[in-house]
Every structure is written in C-alpha cells, then in structure tokens.
Specification:
mainly alpha, MetI-like fold, globular
C-alpha cells in the first residue's frame, strides 16, 4: 500500500530534486568544460570567451600532442606499477593488521590499538621520513612510493571494524573443523568483509593514482616520474615544449592551452572508469565502518 504524501512533503521533494540537480550540474560542468576544451580546435578555443556547451570545432590535435610526449607514456607505466603494487601491499598489510586488532583474546589489544591510532595525529615529519627512506636505499626507486605507506591507519580501523562485525560463532565453527588463523582470515573473514575491502581498494587506488608529492621528494630520474608529477609540470610550470615541437610560436601558445586540458582528461579517465565497478560496494562498505566501532 502506497503511503500518500502530504502537500508539504511533495513540495519538499520537488525542491530537494531541484537542489540536487543544481548541485550535480555545479559538480559535473567543470569536468565537461575540461573535456570540451580538450576536444576543441586550439585557435578557435583561444578566441572563445565564456562558458563551453560543447567542443568548438572538434579536433584531436591536443591528444595527439600529449601522446607525442614520451614522459606521458613512461609516467602511465610508472603509475600503473605504483597503483597495482601499492594497492596489493596496502590491502595485504591492512588485512593482517585489522585481523590482529579485531581479535578479542589478544594481549594488550587496546594498548596496541591506541599506539597505532597515535600515528594518525603525530608524524615524524618530512625530514626524518626522507632520512629513513635514504637509509633503506629506497630513494630514487619506485619502492619509495610504495613501502613507506604500506598501511593507512584510518583504513585499517575501518577494516578492523568490518572483521569485528563477523559473528564469533563462525570463527568457533571453523576452529572445530581444524581451521587455523590463516584459513579463518582468508576463507571466512575476507569474503564476508568484501564490500569494505573493495572500498579500501578504491581509497588506496585513488591515493596512489593522485600522489605526486612523495615522487617529487624521493625521485630524481625523469624515467621514474609518475603521471601526476608529469601533469604537475605541464599544468603549473607550463612545460609543453616537448609536445609542440615543430610549431610556430603562435601555434605553440594556442595548442598549449588545449594540451593542458587534454592531459587532465588522460590522467583522470582511468580512475573514473574504475569507480562504476566498485560503486555497488561503496555504501555498504562505508556503513560497516560507521555503525560499529
């Protein structure tokens, strides 16, 4: 039986829908503007003023120029290595740490948990971190962008909460069947906490994909630069010379503007394509960590 809404509730729903559509447009339009600008002809785009409602004279010249830059290709490869290797290490270490903290019979469990949470608020700082990475001979290697951030404390607490929500009876039944701790963890706990696990994969993946600061600190070889550091040079330092060789000075200035937008699209598109596959886990996985802590 459908519940009849009052006049005030219908008015509220209409205004709520209009407000959400307005908020969606405010969020979506900047991304559409970047896409339209990247697909526009450089000279037509430079002459245009105001909002964009579509590409101005469709052209793929900016994308062709982007992929002429060898640093873009190597940056993509380095970023994929960092994301895949980093997320694998992050998830493995987070699962182990969260499972340990979720056990009720662990000695000094609360003390250890407080010591771990302490690291969320107090950090050694940039200089000690750099000296540690250098002492471990990880500087100027991709491992410097993966190993130091093996665990995110906040994400581990979310995972611990998901493990703690699993009924004790399932663990006890597995022990009666002769299962050890690794069997319980990887065959019972992890499958039951899959929504939370997928959310953490997204969190870690986005963090690695967007990271550029650590690369700027630890890396000196340009062949090791991730994509976001290359993007930073192009956007902030206006370094598009390697992509506009053979063009006149005026053409360089025109195409360099659309190249910036094309690089943003190239750097953002893969992570946007990943999100729909993990969206179904997102709400459920986050709520597990929010309901019980």
């Amino acid at each position: 039986m459908e519940i009849k809404q009052s006049y005030g509730e219908r008015i509220f729903n209409y205004f709520n829908i209009l407000f959400m559509l307005f908020a969606m447009m405010l969020t979506l339009y900047p991304m559409l503007y970047i896409l339209f600008a990247s697909l526009s002809k450089p000279n037509d785009f430079m002459m245009h003023e105001g909002l964009l409602y579509g590409p101005i004279g469709f052209s793929l010249a900016s994308f062709r120029a982007v992929f002429k830059n060898p640093n873009i290709i190597s940056g993509y490869g380095n970023t994929i290595i960092i994301v895949v290797g980093g997320v694998a290490l992050n998830i493995f270490m987070t699962i182990l740490g969260a499972y340990f903290l979720s056990r009720k019979n662990v000695m000094l469990n609360k003390v250890i948990t407080l010591m771990i949470i302490f690291t969320m608020y107090f950090h050694g700082g940039l200089i000690p971190s750099y000296l540690l990475v250098k002492a471990l001979h990880l500087d100027n290697t991709l491992l410097a962008l993966i190993v130091p951030g093996a665990i995110n404390t906040f994400n581990m607490i979310i995972m611990r909460t998901a493990f703690a929500a699993v009924p004790d009876s399932m663990e006890e039944s597995a022990k009666l069947d002769g299962a050890n701790q690794f069997v319980i963890l990887f065959r019972i706990m992890v499958p039951l906490a899959l929504p939370t696990l997928m959310v953490l994969v997204l969190y870690y993946g986005v963090a690695h994909w967007n990271s550029w600061f650590n690369a700027m600190i630890y890396l000196r070889k340009r062949t090791l630069f991730p994509l976001q550091l290359i993007l930073r040079e192009i956007i902030i330092q206006n370094d598009t010379n390697s992509m506009t060789t053979g063009s006149s000075a005026d053409d360089k200035e025109m195409i360099s503007e659309t190249i910036k937008y094309a690089v943003i699209v190239v750097a953002t598109l893969p992570i946007l394509c990943l999100y729909p596959f993990l969206q179904k886990y997102f709400v459920k996985g986050v709520m597990v960590g929010a309901v019980k802590g």
